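Moderator note: this is an archived Q&A kept for reference. The question asked for a predicted structure of one protein chain; the sequence and the answer are reproduced below.
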Amino acid sequence: MIPVGNDRYQRPFWEVSSLTDCFPGEGQVLLHTDRTMIIESALDLIFRDLFYRLPAFAGSHDVFLKLEGFNVTGSIKIKTAIELVEDLEQRGIARPHETVLVESSSGNLGLALSLVCAVKGYEFICVTDPNANRSAIRGIELYGGRVLVVEERDPANGFLGSRLKKIDQILRSDPNAVWLNQYANLANKNAHAKQTGNEIAREFDRVDWIFVGTGTTGTLAGVAERLRAKFPDIIVVAVEPVGSVTFGGAPAKRNIPGIGTSVRPKLADLAKPDRIVEVSEEKTVEACLSFVRDYHLLVGGSSGTVLAAVQQLAPEFRSGDTIVAISADLGEKYLDTVYDPIWVDQVLRSEDAEDPEWVELEQTYARLADAPKRQLTAQ
């Protein structure tokens, strides 16, 4: 069967255990017939069932990493964006070529919304801050969106507080402006219950652990809702960066976008995770660097945070457990931040030169820098 057009939710399962599985060898075809995907809109370009099996990633346990970064606009947020806009349309709130849609985003959702709005005929304004991904901002502009950057951090609620105040100003000044409000909008959760969660549920007979990075918590709440319905004993793990306040953590400055928040989102009340794991930004960077070295794929900052959490809980996994983690995006957008040693040194360096996490991160960079020399020596 060849899925065509708007058949968005029906895709065959595709598991890879090596990135070379994605490319043809001599005498091989690129994709089997039942994997062919013909699209009629950019919004149909979503790879719903792509899992990377990571052998012995967590001790002796394999981990299935659900890769969302191959979707159009490069992240899981295209699902959220489509659902948010179509929900407003179905309720008669949004009308093409008339309504101005507004949202706060540090990158991925803003980029996804700019494409959805371009396809559907809406003006889009993205309110962001200096931590936003530079390439995402450029993408938003190329799709026709307008980017407003708040420069001052709200004393109580950080940059997110400042972004929300700016949105309030826009709504007061433009009667055609509508805020999508990803932080409280049930359409955010519903997108991932009927899409991301369902995509996992239909491909596994058993899932014992699911690891999800938290921001608005829409992905977490939706995935948890769907998977608990099929797997009542599943352990849902919310992965937070240190400094995020979503689940009661102490507020602190954060530098890696796409995960965590400085204002608790209302959707968090629906998430109800079984476990909450906090990961430092140093551990996030180390996980990203280790992953590209060992599994040959650049993953985004939030994915590195999730992977670090998986390894942190590895001693608790039981024999036979099925462990699934969600990778929200890939790493190309983070080459000048997470993967840049100069940025890491300037932004994340601990004042304590003997900080164990910083020492370990420096050692990881050293191993990577030495890798080409070892390869040349081996030749």
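Archived answer notes: The chain has eleven helices and eleven strands.
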